[in-house]
Design goal:
The protein is 43% helix and 18% strand. By secondary structure, the protein is of the alpha/beta class.
């Protein structure tokens, strides 16, 4: 426990963190990777290059300072990050390294403003915060390893099938090499894939949402090809699309993630997705179709056009069920799309459309997609008066702000 003086010192740094947080976290990563380049085998290079990880960490540090006397208030954030850490293989021995370089970065950026008193207070606070993460992650590691079909770390899976779903999305069906059972997951969760690319010095780990129903003898991920191989995201997705073939072996973590469908509830749900954000929604949709045939589902997907719209046939097949209704939005439909009636609405998903076409009473809303899409959907739902506890969303990658 922290004494009141330490708590007061930490809280006094909140305005400074609000102003200089990203400078501190940017410097932190520079220092840590400079001294421990082996950690580049764990961290996402693309998020580093784009500044997303630095911004996300700055937000977490800021929240920790603000709620240092009530860390339970940020428990949802801790759980979300802990899921990611478990899927990446972050272990207790990594935390002292992070703490050392975070303090060095604070001192480096703030200069004389980082007094010994402030550094000492932050050292104590970091110890408490690290212990909280280590405790939560320890339980997650134990659960992942000890559950039926579970395992620790990464396990070898063979690419049993590789299916092109659209011009930009390809699905990979993964089965365990040892032919033993695999862990169940909750619809909406993801797995980590650890890749060793011949031209790369470091390994690359990426999280991909599971895109099929639970209870299969395989995991399915549906991966979007990112433009260009110069950036790390493009390099990894293009490698999967171009170089990974049926019969190849991939290293896979046990499923993780807290953006999940509550299958214990029977209230109506609306699943909204943009682009490749449809992958966790497909798992939710297919699971409800199989195990909750009475639960009303409205599935809404937004895409540029039919060329990039993946998994359409699966949604159309499920839409034949009495409890499932689907709508496709295309903002740039092709002539072929128009001739074949491939879409329901031209343009974007709007609050006005949702108000006219979706029953909002006692309905839970789940959405995922590009950040502008998610911010627009969130704003529309708030304008419709949907309570926050019925709004569920996930960012692909580090947590960002849902507010525009």
């Amino acid at each position: 426990m922290l004494d009141q003086k330490t708590i007061d010192i930490i809280k006094s740094t909140v305005p400074v963190l609000e102003k200089h947080g990203e400078k501190i976290t940017t410097r932190f990563y520079q220092l840590m990777f400079g001294n421990h380049p082996e950690l580049l085998n764990i961290f996402n290079h693309a998020n580093q290059k784009q500044g997303r990880q630095q911004k996300a960490l700055a937000g977490t540090v800021y929240a920790a300072a603000m709620y240092i006397d009530n860390l339970e208030a940020i428990l949802p954030v801790v759980n979300q990050i802990a899921h990611k850490h478990r899927s990446l293989g972050i272990k207790p021995e990594h935390y002292p390294i992070v703490g050392k370089h975070l303090l060095l970065a604070i001192k480096d950026v703030l200069g004389d403003g980082a007094t010994d008193e402030i550094i000492d207070a932050w050292a104590q606070a970091y110890g408490v915060i690290a212990d909280a993460f280590i405790s939560v992650e320890s339980e997650m590691y134990e659960e992942a390893a000890n559950q039926k079909g579970g395992w620790d770390g990464f396990r070898s899976f063979i690419v049993d099938r590789k299916v092109v779903e659209s011009d930009v999305i390809t699905s990979f069906y993964l089965k365990p090499v040892d032919n033993r059972g695999i862990a169940e997951f909750i619809p909406g969760q993801y797995i980590s894939i650890k890749l060793e690319i011949e031209s790369e010095h470091y390994t690359h780990i990426r999280q991909y949402s599971l895109s099929d129903a639970v209870g299969k003898d395989y995991y399915r991920i549906s991966v979007k090809r990112e433009a260009g191989t110069a950036n790390p995201d493009g390099m990894v997705s293009n490698y999967l699309h171009d170089d990974v073939k049926e019969g190849d072996i991939l290293n896979v973590s046990a499923p993780a993630g807290d953006f999940v469908l509550d299958t214990k509830k029977e209230t109506p749900i609306v699943l909204l997705s943009g682009g490749v954000g449809l992958t966790p929604m497909m798992s939710m949709l297919k699971t409800v179709g199989e195990i909750q045939p009475e639960r009303k589902v409205t599935f809404i997907h937004a895409a540029q056009n039919g060329n990039v719209h993946a998994l359409r046939e699966e949604v159309e097949e499920l839409s034949a069920l009495e409890n499932i209704t689907s709508f496709f939005f295309y903002d740039s439909p092709t002539e072929e799309d128009r001739l074949n009636n491939n879409f329901d609405v031209e343009g974007y998903v709007t609050g006005e459309w949702l108000k006219e076409n979706v029953t909002t009473l006692d309905t839970d809303f789940y959405f995922c997609g590009p950040v502008p899409f998610m911010r627009a959907i969130n704003r529309s739902l708030k304008d419709l008066g949907i309570n926050e506890e019925r709004i569920h969303f996930e960012f692909f990658g580090p947590k960002a702000s849902i507010e525009a």
